[in-house]
Each structure stands twice: as C-alpha cells, then as structure tokens.
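Data availability excerpt. The first of two example chains:
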Amino acid sequence: MKIKALQVGPIGTNCYLLEDETTNSAAVVDPGGEAERILAQLKADGMEVKCILLTHAHFDHTGGVADLRAALPQVPVYLHRLDAERLGTGEMPAIGPTVPYDEGDEVLVGALTVKVLFTPGHTPGGVTLLVEGERVLFTGDTLFQGSMGRTDLAGGNYEEIMRSLARLAALEGDYHVLPGHMGGSTLERERKSNYYVMEAVQG
C-alpha cells in the first residue's frame, strides 16, 4: 500500500491517493480540485482508479469531482446520504449522483478494504475512512493535528463532533491520522495532546 498526499484547490485541501501496488488499483480521497494534476499523478504511478471516496461534501473536498467524472465516467463517487441530500446548497455544490455509504460499509480498492466510520459534526454526513489492517484513518475535517473541524457552518453540530472524536479515540491501538487539512498525526498523539479529543473523552 502507498498513500500520496496532494494539496489541491483554493485552500490547499489534502487529497489522498490510496494505492494498492499489488493490483495497480487506487482510490481518490477528497479531490478538492486540480483534477488534471491528480490524474497525472495516478498515470505516473500506473494506477487504475476504482472509486472516489468523500469524507464530506464541502466544496474544498469535492471541487475536482466534476472533472474526474468527465475523465473517469464509470468510477463511482461515494458519499454519506446526509451530505448527499444537501448537495447544491451553501458550502456543498452539486457534484452529480453519488453512491451512499454509511457506518460499517466496506469499499474494496484492489486488495485493500476501506471501512466507513460515521463521524458527523462538521457536517451531518461526515465519515472517517479506516484502511483495515493498515492502521490508517482518513479523518476529513473531523479530526486535525491538535484540533478538530469547525461546527459553525450550516449543518455543523458541536455535540455530534464531540461524540465522533470520542468514538475515534476509543479505537484500539494507534493509527496514522490523515486529515483534510494541515499535516498528519497519530491517534495516540491526539489522545494525549489534542484538547478537543481530551474534552470529548472526558465527556
């Protein structure tokens, strides 16, 4: 498995390429823009895109979806239904049809299995994507290094994101945390030093 991070779009959102070298299969996580650059990197890596996985539907995480669809019309775009229902409003532009996924669902990327954890709060349909067996979490805008996603935008909910942070903190063992913005971290580091995570755990 390889994971490549590209900072794309107007505010440099982290777009991740999850690549399985054994099958040359890849998933694009949160393509916030610059689809040509994303496609060029995948081509250079010799990867075939199997799916586009969205942690939530804000514009800075979906800005590249339309152009990726044009280039890869058969590739499904996954999004939680609660965010899909809000597409075309406010911070969530219309991106075309999506495939719903929810808590416990699994998406195969070659030999890799991506499990969906429902982690609302930043948006109603926010999810975290866990790569089974690889100790990796794509946390979108739920959990950041030393911080968390804002809850003052439409659909945000502080109590919900606190529950989501507590749920992530309760996962057994350590994980690499790959957020939608800023640098990566580890779950153990966030348990020990992230004020919001500590508050969430204490209830």
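And the second chain:
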Amino acid sequence: MKSVKIQLRLPEDLRDVAARQAAQSGVSLNLFLATAVASRVGAYAEAERYFAARSSRTTPQRAKALLTRLGTVGGLRDDDRLDAE
C-alpha cells in the first residue's frame, strides 16, 4: 500500500490530547491518527454494508406499512419514556 503525505490542521488542545494518548499507547502520533481515521472509515463502510443488506430485504411499500402499523397502535408505554426509571 502506497502512503501519501497530508497536512492536517488540528486545534492545539486536540493535538495535545491525541499526542498524550499516542504516547500512552506507545505509538507515534502519526500511527495513532492513521489508526483513528482507518477506524472511522471502516465503521462508515460497515454501516453502509449493513443498511444496504437490510434494505435489500424489503420494499418501500412494506417499510411504509410497517411504520404505519408501529406508529398508531397503543401509544407510548411507561418504559418507552426517556425519563422512566
């Protein structure tokens, strides 16, 4: 794999935190940032794959019918509320 050089501007406090975490992990700041970017890119690609697979198993009409059914029956239960204990 070919590497390319980029210039990255970060707020100083973010750079300091990243450098500290890289040092704690025993890796260079460059490797730490490259790993963070790779993680984010991988997560995005996985989300795209997941939702593409899910959407291929239905049709817009079936999805609308499901949303209509779920949106009208019974209302909220007590444990559906965010402030429920």
